Amino acid sequence: MIRLKIEVLKTGERIFLSGKIYTARDQAHKRLVETIRAGKKLPLDLRGKIIYYCGPTQTPKGKIIGSCGPTTSSRMDEFTAALLKAGLMGMIGKGSRSREVVAAIKKYKAAYFLTYAGCGALLSKYVMKRKPVAFQDLGPEAIYELEVKNFPLIVGIDASGRNIYGKE
Q1: What distance lies between CA 167 and its chain's CA centroid?
Q2: How far, CA to CA in Å, does 34 sit from each of 10, 37, 118?
Q3: How far is CA 59 from CA 68, 126, 168, in A?
Q4: Residue of 6, 23, 24, 29 marked catalytic
Q5: Against a cut of 0.90, is the pTM above it?
Q6: Phi, psi dihedral angles at 70 (to 5 degrees)
Q7: Beta strand pairing status for 50-52 and 111-114?
Q8: Catalytic site residue 144?
Q9: Is the pLDDT of residue 16 over 70?
Q10: Three-class DSSP category at 27
């Protein structure tokens, strides 16, 4: 469980996150939203969770995870409001977000975090455990639970809707 007080974080603040986060990219997001719209039970309870927009590479022998850098967040924008409404607390990725996503972050008092792009091998060193959760048929785009320790983040959009990219 991540004990993070989202409402006190400020855009531009640097934090080091420890706890469980969940990987999910385009296809996993699509399936999650389809499940919500169909009124079915999600494969994981999104309340209070953080999704990392990441599709880890193949795990080298003796490692916990392969390279696990962030993917471009705007690709998930069409699905984000529905997941926030379902209780998602935050997202980790790279790049700016749409006005609709910024508004949804503000409405649901969530946060959008940035992490270092191009540093997937380095970021893998902060992953202590990895466990498959859902959609294994998607390969690297499946949902994985990652236990991270001191994972480096920057608050990109805070719960008040302040945006590091200067957009509202």
Answers
A1: 20
A2: 32, 5, 31
A3: 10, 14, 39
A4: 29
A5: yes
A6: -75, 150
A7: unpaired
A8: no
A9: yes
A10: helix
3-class state of residue 77 by DSSP: helix
The residue extents of the domains of the chain are 13-157
Is 13-157 a domain of CATH 3.30.565.10? no
Are 162 and 109 in contact, with CB atoms under 8 Å apart?
A: no
Distance CA 30, CA 160 (A): 27
Please name the residues in contact with 85: beta carbons below 8 A apart, sequence gap of 6 or more: 104, 108
Tell me the CA distances in angstroms from 5 to 23, 45, 104, 149, 167, one per residue in order: 21, 19, 18, 17, 23
Cβ-contact 26, 91 below 8 angstroms:
no
Evaluate whether 156 touches 116 at the Cβ level (below 8 Å): no
d(CA 103, CA 108): 9
Listed range (84-88, 97-101, 124-128, 138-142) with the worst mean pLDDT: 138-142
Residue 59 has pLDDT above 80, yes or no: yes
First CA to last CA across the chain, in angstroms?
31
Q: Indicate the pLDDT class of residue 2, thresholds 50, 70 and 90.
A: low
